Amino acid sequence: MSTTRRTTTLWRPTGPVELALVADSGYRAWPPRLPEQPIFYPVLNEDYAVRIARDWNVPASGSGYVTRFEVEAGFLARYPVRRAGGETILELWVPAEELEEFNRHIVGRIEVVREFHAPA
Predict the structure, then answer these.
(1) Structure confidence at residue 120 (pLDDT)
(2) Which of 49, 93, 101, 105 is the most buried (most CB within 10 A)?
(3) Which of 37, 3, 35 is nearest to 12 (CA)?
(4) H or E stretch at 26
(5) The domain spanning residue 55 has which CATH number?
(6) pLDDT for the residue 1
(7) What distance in Å separates the CA atoms of residue 67 and residue 110, rounded to the nearest whole number?
(8) Alpha-carbon span 120 to 118, nearest angstrom
(9) Strand, helix or coil at 120?
(10) How confident is the chain (120 residues) per 10-residue block, as mean pLDDT?
(11) 96 contacts 28 by C-beta, under 8 angstroms
(12) Nearest partner of 13 among 47, 39, 62, 59, judged by Cα
């Protein structure tokens, strides 16, 4: 009998402050949202995450990172896929108060797969 859980790959563009908090968790959890951040939104494809990390995080904070992580697919079924623009601009909206539970369904570690930095 297999104990393998079916997972879905998600990506999250992030800046250096949030990434430091992820590192503090051992790359196993996303930090709580700030009061002005009512939603945690992982995205469904790497290209969209790259665009946000490169085009938004770098100008805002000097660097941007693309992370990849796996979440139990059955758990994710509660979050409808949201289109935030074009056909491939897809994300999930996780209410801030559900983030702790969301983190419990991450399988493995959160990995940094791309990084971008402002020119020196």
Answers:
(1) 80
(2) 49
(3) 37
(4) none
(5) 3.20.170
(6) 44
(7) 6
(8) 6
(9) coil
(10) 75 97 98 93 95 96 98 94 79 95 98 95
(11) no
(12) 47
- 2 inside domain: no
Number of domains in the chain: 1
Residue 1 maps to a domain: no
Closest-CA residue to 43 (of 2, 76, 11): 11
Name the amino acid, one letter, at 75.
F
Q: Is residue 69 part of a domain?
A: yes
Other Cβ atoms closer than 10 A to 67: 24
DSSP string across 10-48 = EEEEE-HHHHHHHHHTTSS-PPPPPTT--EE--BS-HHH
- 54 assigned to some structural domain: yes
89 φ/ψ angles, rounded to the nearest 5 degrees: -95, 80
- By CB neighbour count within 10 A (0-12 exposed, 13-18 middle, 19+ buried), where does 36 fall? exposed
Q: Model pTM?
A: 0.91
- For residue 48, give its domain range: 7-117
